[in-house]
Amino acid sequence: MAEASIQPLTVTLKVNGRDYTVTVEPRWTLADVLRHQLGLTGTHVGCEQGVCGACTVLVDGEPARSCLMFAVQMEGHEIVTIEGLTPEAGLSPLQEAFHRHHALQCGFCTPGMLVTATALLNQGKPLTEETVREALSGNLCRCTGYQFIVDAVMDAQGGK
Ligand code: FES
Ligand code: FES
Asked: Is this prediction's pTM over 0.70?
C-alpha cells in the first residue's frame, strides 16, 4: 500500500526578535526546527519527552518545552532561545553569576536552566532558595547537585 504523503507547510516563526520563514513537516518539533533549520543549537534536546527541561525556551515570556511543541503551532508567538538571552559581546548578569558560582559542569542542562531562571527573574519578585528550587524543579542536572545553580540565581537577583 502506498504511504500517505505528508505535506510540508510554510510558517513564519518569530525567534529572538527576528522572523524566519521555514518549510517544515507538521510532525517536526520546535526544538528540532530551532536546531536544524535555524541553526540555534543552544537549545539542547535530552529526553524528547518533556522530562529533562534541556530544551526549554520562552514562548510569549513563559518557559516551555520545545520538544513537546510542533513548530507549525508557533506562528504568532514570540520565541526566545538561549541565544536571544545572550548579549552579542560577553555574558548576561545571570550567565556571569553561573560562571562565578561554578553552576555548570558538562553544560548540557545549562541553556534550559538559564531560560527557566530568566523567566523567574523577570517576574521581579524577591526570591528565596525555596522558590528558586521550585522554579527549577523541572530542569534536571546530572552533574552539579543544584546548590551552585540555586546560588547563582539568587546572586543574579536585581541584575538578571
Ligand atoms: S528534551 Fe525536552 S524536556 Fe527533555
Ligand atoms: S551541568 Fe551537566 S547536566 Fe547539568
From this structure: yes
